[in-house]
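Sample entry was shown:

___
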Amino acid sequence: MTGGTIRVLIADDQMMVRQGFTVLLNAEPGIEVVGQAVDGADAVAKVADLSPDVVLMDIRMPGTGGIEATRVLTTAAGSTVKVLVLTTFDLDEYVYEALRAGASGFLLKDASADELAEAVRVVARGDALLAPGLTKRLIAEFSRLSATPRSPLKDRVGALTERETEVLTLVAQGLSNAEIATCLVVAEQTVKTHVSRILVKLGLRDRTQAAVFAFDTGLVRPAGH
């Protein structure tokens, strides 16, 4: 972020969506739209040129779609850009693929100006995927579409301490740091430290990816499974 301002790139094949989001975000303090992209390939190129902090990425676009573009952006060496995917339906199966590809969260296209701005700020901070309750529902639904736990990933859980594994499980259940602190009877700062160490040990970008990891490895299973 430059001078505390969150730099945003908007990638959507619909001009009205791009322009509408640009107007809304530029009216928000501390947020600046630095560019627009018409598809996934254009988004990748614009990120290289403009170095935004957050990309608002439409999932479905002609040519290179949002999922592939997200994968390219989040796996690039030294990449710090966060991707917030845009979708029309909150349980769109493509959302889950985008999360697995490295997206930090998702936003409905009919979100209000306040919801849009808050989502950008949340993702820029690397915090939870929007509201904790939404995280829990989304990730649980996501896990139902997953195959059996992935062994290579499951092996990485062994790098965590018992307490870190406990914290990871609670993150995947959608709890905030404050709620985890209350649950474990520890200071909130202690939870933040644990979360930071979990991300480093597992090579993950943020809490959202930590939650996806927990479900993908079978560490946490949705209710009834």
Notes: The chain is about 50% helix and 10% strand. Residues 139 and 212 are 7 Å apart (CA to CA).
